[in-house]
Write a structure and sequence with these properties.
The chain has about 575 residues and is α/β, with parallel strands linked by helices. It folds into 3 domains: about 120 residues, Beta-Lactamase, CATH 3.30.450; about 150 residues, Reverse transcriptase/Diguanylate cyclase domain (Alpha-Beta Plaits); about 240 residues, EAL domain (TIM Barrel), CATH 3.20.20.450. The protein contains 19 helices and 23 strands. The strands form 4 sheets. The protein has an 8-stranded mixed beta barrel, surrounded by 4 helices.
Length: about 575
């Protein structure tokens, strides 16, 4: 719960009088304006009180201001300050003061007591009255360097130590904005303080600079010889914070830029580290990523794809290809609809170079709708042609589609528009996507299955919970990619045992089992001997335009191997 007390003006006045009787100094403070709040008979006066820092005979705000932190975190803050041979104990209590009209004004009740410092107390650093230059370069909430101070300090070190190698690390709190929305800005600041202290504890060497650049983004600059990726990963994995009586786990991500170009602006170095950090996305396991020129090239290409997506769609650059699926006799029994992208000059953009980027931007939903409709229209054409009526088409569904689309409604509309059999439109989703969000995906897939669609799990076996997936998701087909076994001479026999076991398990569950990635005749014969009945791969055909697909089906319905 919040430590802030909610009190009327009279209650605050009474509490203040009590504190003034029992402590050497008690006062109300407007922490943002750094001014004492006077309570007279007319109520609180936020305008004419003395400057808060005058009690320290200073002319500027304290950098280590306990009242500021108490106000912005809604938490009680205690600290010790030593001035000469006297030790000061400061206790700051946040208060939400309710005025007569109902408005709530935040104040902090600051209580200060002092005594003669003991020998042990003399080890506490003496309080230094800050100057304007110090405050310009430091963050008041955390006491760390701010962006200006961090940039200047890093540049100074690089200028004076040209032979040392350094690293710059960018860190931010995951889902910090959501945390603020759920628990409020004060608790968000409380989390920032915890992270600031955690970083300071982790980076306590004199050769290290630590800054809070803005919001929830921190930066660390240190010699490369002192950097440990494993240690950084461990420190970032989990921090516990108590919010409203509940303990929650907070994580951070870090991007690392080994400084190879010390002459570029420090802000650009921070940008490189930020770029690496953002590249992690939603990874639960890897919390640290490194900047490289290859990463920069990849991000530039990503931005080009994302920004040109609408133009590519308008130019009909995306085309649907079909890869045949065959039975043990080589007869085509269906196809997987796969998207390809062609630039205006005829060059091909590989799927791996645009699909992940479109998934990240949410544009994949529009592209998938295009593929689904193209496949549905093709099924309509085949439904009245001999030799094509029994064909099914598998369409891929990205997990991001479930966030941006009502997949059931979209598919139902296509079925109605083209008057096709739902059983011929197979819905395919990767096992890893189901595992990533089991509750959401299993519910949606169950809804599609009950509506009459055939469901397929792609890349079965790549996930860590394959058996659990089968237990929780009701599907009709398992698609296994031979590549995940990466069979060598050493593990080939183990691979065969796994493939045979998956087949037997699937058959026992009444599932159709299709194996992808079949590339050689030897592989095909081995799989036939195991008992596999359905296949897909380059041995039979690469993904091809519909005209080629129909030509293959028309010319050689039963044996198409060697057409790759």
């Amino acid at each position: 719960m919040s430590d802030a007390l909610r009190m009327s003006v009279e209650e605050v006045r009474d509490l203040l009088k009590l504190k003034q009787q029992t402590h050497q100094l008690a006062r109300l403070v407007d922490a943002d304006d750094c001014r004492e709040v006077v309570l007279d008979q007319e109520g609180p006066d936020f305008t004419f009180g003395k400057r808060c820092f005058s009690v320290w005979a200073s002319e500027l705000r304290c950098s280590n201001c306990s009242s500021y932190r108490a106000h912005h975190t809604a938490s009680i803050v205690k600290k010790q300050e030593r001035v000469g041979h006297r030790l000061y104990e400061i206790h700051s209590q946040p208060i939400h003061m309710v005025l007569s009209g109902g408005a709530v004004m935040p104040v902090t009740m600051e209580v200060i007591d002092s005594r003669e410092a003991t020998e042990d107390d003399m080890t506490i650093p003496a309080k230094v009255n800050e100057n304007g230059e110090y405050l310009i370069r430091h963050d008041v909430l955390t006491g760390l360097l701010n962006a200006r101070g961090f940039y200047e300090a890093v540049r100074k070190v690089l200028r004076e130590n040209t032979k040392e190698r350094y690293v710059l690390i960018s860190i931010n709190v995951r889902h910090f904005k959501l945390l603020q929305e759920l628990h409020g800005a004060e608790k968000g600041n409380h989390v920032l303080l915890i992270f600031a202290n955690r970083i300071l504890k982790m980076e306590s060497t004199p050769d290290t600079l630590v800054g809070r650049l803005w919001g929830d983004e921190f930066a660390i600059f240190k010699p490369y010889r002192l950097f440990s990726q494993d240690r950084l990963q461990r420190e970032l994995e989990r921090a516990e914070v108590s919010i409203n009586g509940n303990t929650i786990h907070v994580q951070a991500h870090a991007g690392v830029y080994p400084i190879t170009e010390p002459r570029i602006p420090v802000s650009v170095m921070v940008g490189h580290a930020d770029m690496a950090r953002r590249n992690i996305r939603e990874s639960r396991a890897n919390l640290v990523s490194f900047y490289s020129h290859e990463l920069l090239d990849s991000i530039i290409k990503k931005q080009e794809i994302i920004s040109s997506f609408e133009e590519l769609m308008a130019e009909n650059a995306f085309r649907v290809y079909y890869q045949p699926q065959v039975n043990r006799d080589g007869k085509i029994v269906g196809a997987e609809a796969l998207v390809r992208c062609f630039r205006a000059d005829g060059t091909i953009i590989p799927p791996a170079s645009f699909i992940p980027y479109l998934e990240g931007s949410g544009q994949i939903a529009k592209l998938d709708k295009f593929v689904w409709e193209t496949a549905a229209a093709q099924l309509k054409k085949w439904s009245s042609r001999d030799g094509y009526k029994d064909l099914a088409i598998s369409i891929n569904v990205s997990p991001k589609d479930f966030y941006y689309l009502n997949c059931r409604q979209v598919l139902d509309n296509l079925v109605e528009k083209y008057q096709i059999d739902k059983k011929k439109l197979h819905v395919e989703i990767t096992e890893s996507a189901i595992i990533y969000d089991m509750e959401r995906e299993s519910h949606t897939l169950d809804d599609l299955r009950k509506a009459g669609y055939v469901l397929e799990i792609d890349d079965f076996g790549k996930g860590y919970s394959s058996l659990n997936t089968l237990k929780n998701v009701d599907v009709e087909t398992l698609k296994i990619d031979m590549a995940f076994l990466q069979m060598t001479e050493e593990n080939k026999e183990k691979g065969k045992v796994i493939l045979k076991s998956i087949l037997m398990m699937g058959q026992a569950l009444g599932l159709k089992v299709l194996i992808e990635g079949v590339e050689t005749e030897k592989q095909f014969q081995t799989l036939l001997n195991m008992g596999y009945d359905y296949f897909q791969g380059y041995l039979f055909s690469r993904p091809i335009p519909v005209s080629e697909f129909e030509a293959v089906l028309h010319e050689n319905k039963y044996r198409i191997r060697g057409n790759a």
